[in-house]
């Protein structure tokens, strides 16, 4: 009774890699799910893309991120960026476009 535990959120979280950041404040996250076939019992890889809201435009292509379910923000966006788990080692387009002087 002395310990107060915070109720766990019912909103689902998914971990995936960022595929596209070409929209403003929006990222496309590809989540890989492994599922067993109901008849043949073989593990199948399923890929699904989710549109997620990125308020500060912090995520880059190739990053591994955690997204969290939220209220509908647009026609396709129902997820928000929770955190960037691992940064990508790929060079970014802005860095390539500007020559080093």
Task: Give me some keywords for this one.
101 residues, mainly beta, OB fold (Dihydrolipoamide Acetyltransferase, E2P), five-stranded mixed beta barrel, 5 strands, 5% helix
How are the SSEs placed, and which strands pair?
Blueprint: E1 13-23, E2 26-36, E3 43-53, E4 64-69, E5 79-86, H1 93-97
Parallel strand pairs: 3-5
Antiparallel strand pairs: 1-2, 1-4, 2-3, 4-5
Q: What can you see in these coordinates?
A:
Helices cover 5% and strands 47% of the residues. It has 101 residues and is mainly β. It has a single domain, classed as OB fold (Dihydrolipoamide Acetyltransferase, E2P), CATH 2.40.50. 13% of the residues are buried.
Instruction: Count the domains.
Output: 1
Q: In terms of quaternary structure, what is this?
A: single chain
CATH homologous superfamily title:
Nucleic acid-binding proteins
Low-confidence stretches: none
Proportion of helical residues: under 10%
**Strand order in space, largest sheet:** 1-2-3-5-4
Number of strands: 5
Order of helices and strands: EEEEEH
Tell me what the CATH architecture is: Beta Barrel
CATH topology tier name: OB fold (Dihydrolipoamide Acetyltransferase, E2P)
The whole-angstrom Rg is 17 Å
Strand proportion, as a percent range, falls in over 45%
Number of helices: 1
């Amino acid at each position: 009774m002395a310990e107060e535990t915070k109720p766990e959120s019912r909103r689902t979280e998914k971990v995936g890699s960022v595929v596209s950041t070409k929209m403003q404040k929006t990222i496309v996250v590809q989540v890989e799910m492994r599922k067993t076939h109901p008849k043949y019992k073989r593990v199948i890889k399923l890929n699904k893309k989710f549109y997620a809201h990125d308020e500060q435009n912090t995520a880059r292509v190739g990053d591994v991120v955690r997204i969290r379910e939220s209220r509908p923000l647009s026609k396709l966006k129902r997820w928000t960026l929770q955190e960037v788990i691992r940064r990508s080692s790929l060079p970014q387009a802005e860095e390539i476009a500007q020559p080093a002087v």
